[in-house]
Amino acid sequence: MLKSKLHFSRVCVHLVAEEDCELPEFTGSLLRGAFGHALKKAFCVMHHRDCGSCLVSNSCGYFQVFESMSDTYKSMGFHYKSHPYIIIPSTKNVFMKDDILKFKLTMFGEYKKYIPYFVYAFQLMGELGFGKNRHKFSLLSVTDDLSKEEIYEEGRLFPEKIINTSLQLYTNAVPQLGEVLPVEFVTPARFAEKGKTVSNLNGDLLLASMVRRYSMMNTFYGEYVQEDVDSLEINLQPIQREKYVSWKRYSNRQNKHVPQGGILGIYNILNPKEKLYKFIKTMEVLHIGKNTSFGLGQIKVG
Q1: Which segment, 13-17, 38-42, 68-72, is predicted with the most confidence on average?
Q2: Which residues of the chain are in CATH 3.30.70.1900 domains?
Q3: What pLDDT is recorded for position 36?
């Protein structure tokens, strides 16, 4: 069993298009930007101030979710703090009026406590509109992704229905493992080695990225755990042509389009052991690589 104490919740958001529209092909960055903008409006009482110098930042949900980085973590060698959420974007980007835009939000640690603000932000982001043309959407419902229970519907909120589970429970059931374990990269995964983006994946890089992601998320939002990973190794074999996809996303912070890229494909892991299976399975929840907060690095095991 893994030592992880990390808990998570996941909700599914349903928005209704109020007009015909076309959004960027990969909607994750767009949704993350709109969510952040709306959440800041929901929380901010010190308008037009820099969050880092704000007097109430330590008690501000927006700052904790989007901006926070403490000196404690810097002293532990972390250069940045991973966000406590992941947006799993819609695979659809063209909508007719009354079509449903569906995306998921995974929340780690204690951050499900902000769900009333998150739901308000979902409503507000639709009202403010998406993209440069501000295409409008209205909030239809929010459901718990595990139980399928309604969390929000017709103006009523039921936060007590959100299920909080753990990585331990999520990885508890192990199927009978054969000689190969297929792993699919559902959304592009961005890997870097020595500061440079990598377009071809190998087992050592995949394992190192998983260990880093697992350690960071447990340290930030669970508790620090020292897993025995020295015995783990990955023999990786592409079984469906891997490809490196490129696109651009607009960065509000940098006020420009930023090139992006990532690896898609299906791989076989040869002769997987139980602990390696569990470790890889956590990445279905945590995602892997860079820019996970807006949905990159989503994998499917088995």
Answers
A1: 13-17
A2: 173-301
A3: 94
Q: How confident is residue 228, by pLDDT bands cut at 50, 70 and 90?
A: confident
pTM greater than 0.85 (yes/no): yes
CATH code for residues 7-166: 3.30.70.1890
pLDDT tens digits along 93-121: 999 999 999 999 999 999 999 999 999 99
Is the Cβ–Cβ distance between 67 and 5 less than 8 Å? no
Residue-by-residue DSSP string for the chain: ------EEEEEEEEEEESS-EE--SS-HHHHHHHHHHHHHHHH-SSTT--GGG-TTGGG-HHIIIII---HHHHHTT-SS---SEEEE--S--EE-TTPEEEEEEEEETTGGGGHHHHHHHHHHHHHH-BTTTTB-EEEEEEEETTT--EEEETTEE-GGG---EEHHHHT---PPP-SEEEEEEEEEEBEEETTEEESS--HHHHHHHHHHHHHHHHHHHS-------TT----EEEEEEEEEEEEEEEETTTTEEEEEEEEEEEEEEES--HHHHHHHHHHHHH--SB-GGGTTT-EEE-
Give me the pLDDT at residue 59, please. 87
d(CA 289, CA 292): 7
In terms of phi and psi (left: phi > 0; alpha: psi -120 to 50; beta: otherwise), the region of 115 is alpha
Fold of 173-301: Alpha-Beta Plaits (3.30.70)
For 121-151, the pLDDT digits (tens) are 999 999 999 988 999 999 999 999 999 999 9
Query: 193-208 pLDDT, tens per residue?
Result: 888 888 889 999 999 9
Q: Where in the chain is the domain with CATH 3.30.70.1890?
A: 7-166
